[in-house]
Amino acid sequence: MLHATDQIAFPGIRKVAAFATLLLLLTGARSVQAADPEMETVSVYLNVERDGSLVTGLGEANFRFREDGRTRQFRLERPEEPASIAVLLEYSRSSGYYLDDLTAAVEGFHRYAPEGNWYALATFSRGLDITLDFTRQPGRIADAFARTGWPFSNEINTYDAVYGMLDRMSRLPGRKILIVVGSGLDTFSEHSLDDVKEKIESSNVTIFAAGTGSMLRTSQEPYLDAASRLTLFQAQAFLQMLAGKSGGFAWFPMHSQGFPDVMQGVMQSIAAQYRLVYDTTALGSGKFHKIKVEAFRVVNDKREDFKVLVREGWR
Length: 315
Prior knowledge:
The N and C termini lie far apart (65 Å). Helix 2 runs antiparallel to helix 3, helix 4 (158-169) packs parallel to helix 5 (193-201) and helix 5 runs parallel beside helix 7. The strands form 2 sheets. Strands 1, 2, 3, 4, 5, 12, 13, 14 and 15 form a 9-stranded antiparallel beta sheet that branches. A 6-stranded mixed beta sheet has the order 8-7-6-9-10-11, sandwiched between helices. It is built from 8 helices and 15 strands. Helix content is 37%, strand content 28%.
């Protein structure tokens, strides 16, 4: 049997319990909402090739796009203009052995870089130096290089230089391209190889690499010990990694005369890039999310697949 006091207290208890439940639900809802990753609209830049030649003129129906193995919706848009294009040039006292390669690369850039984009030049040995900040006049790149004094350091801190440029360029809006010209060797960088890999994965920058010193390596290789050969192999693999993870390519001309052709190929690739735009929660998650793009064309009911140069994914 209920007493009068029980009858008065019971509704109050129900109200307190209901309020506590509501508060818990609201708090939980806010916690779930706060934990949900934000959806971001991002651009994936890529080139399509067939037998080494660039393929242009494809439409949305010619592509299939997956993130972490799941088919994702996307739209095809024109790449942003102007693009931000930076040249990162190894310039150490040790680089004197292949100075002709470096000079030819700058000359090729001067010859083939079109008007209209933003261009910058950075050099590195022990540290990174922004030799020329972004300008709309590509001819100033060669002028800035010509005025660069001979470096004092023998060090080649490639990892630090690449990491530093990616960190700077990741803050820029629009389309971003980094052209790395150097041996790929590294002496005393503070950043590790894994640091550079993760920076590529978290930066939407396409990297093209031109490896220097190939002729010197070929002539000296018979006289090198196993450790020196391994070092040179790792240096070349590093440049290939930069390009492969970001959607660019790496070339290793055997003669300095080949570097203008490399620069011409880079500029043609930039002009022929496709831009796939989609919504994702992958950016900033800390976890690596793999992406895959297929490009093809159907002719007479037969599918023809193309090679796609695209970044490996996001972090």
